[in-house]
Amino acid sequence: MSKVGIIMGSKSDLPVMQEAIDILKDFKIEVEVDIVSAHRTPEKLFDYGKYAHTRGFSVIIAGAGGAAHLPGMIASLSPLPVIGVPVKSSNSIDGWDSILSILQMPGGVPVATVALNGAKNAGILAAQIIGSSDAAVLDKIIAYKEALKAKVIESAKDLK
Ligand code: RP5
Questions:
Q1: 88 CA to centre of ligand 1 in angstroms
Q2: Is 91 exposed, middle or buried (0-12, 13-18, 19+ CB in 10 A)?
Q3: Per-residue pLDDT of the chain (160 residues; tens, 9 = 90+)
Q4: How far are the Cα atoms of 37, 135, 158 from residue 74, in angstroms, in the given order?
Q5: Rounded distance, CA 60 to CA 126, Å?
Q6: Which of ligand 1's atoms lies nearest the C-alpha of 98?
Q7: Residue nearest to atom 5 of ligand 1 (CA)
Q8: By CB neighbour count within 10 A (0-12 exposed, 13-18 middle, 19+ buried), where does 138 fall?
């Protein structure tokens, strides 16, 4: 069964990253959560990035704030798809620092960067990557999108 690795630079990122954990659990996809700091635990980052694909992960979601090097460095070490979540943290100037640190990767080393604090979308995107080769997960994504549509149609009725 596919497993998603969710890592973050600090425990202070957890309130944001929890949304990725929650949506993946809703989709019944296994997650393994860890704290891996690019600057404070560089050896752990290296091991995680180098060996994640041997540990049963299909996708990695990495969130960090400020000088957010974690997603890009993991992408440099791992053959797995990496989704980056820029976090507006206590050391972020305004969030743009986190966004640009994760978004502006050099050619050859992609990080699929979601919106600032966009961990929920990171979880959905990870599920969609898994769903492209797992029919049961794909069905859950289809049902999720149908529910989104129904909610909007229902909310429009309230206006009438
Ligand atoms: C980054 O620095 C972390 O990802 C976090 O967003 C930010 C602040 O970390 P703490 O000082 O709260 O541990 O590396």
A1: 9
A2: middle
A3: 799 999 999 999 999 999 999 999 999 999 999 999 999 999 999 999 999 999 999 999 999 999 999 999 999 999 999 999 999 999 999 999 999 999 999 999 999 999 999 999 999 999 999 999 999 999 999 999 999 999 999 999 988 8
A4: 11, 28, 46
A5: 8
A6: 6
A7: 65
A8: middle
C-alpha of residue 82 to centroid of ligand 1, in Å:
19
Distance, in Å, from the CA atom of 79 to the CA atom of 114, rounded to the nearest integer, reads 19
83, amino acid identity:
I
| Strand ranges inside the chain, DSSP E | 3-8, 30-35, 57-65, 82-87, 112-113
- Two tokens, residue 106: 């050099």
Q: Spell 99-135 as b/e; 16+ CB within 10 A means b.
A: bebbbebeeeeebbbbebbbbbbbbbbbbebbbeebe
Pocket of ligand 1 from Cβ distances under 6 Å: 8-10, 12-13, 37, 64-66, 87, 89-91
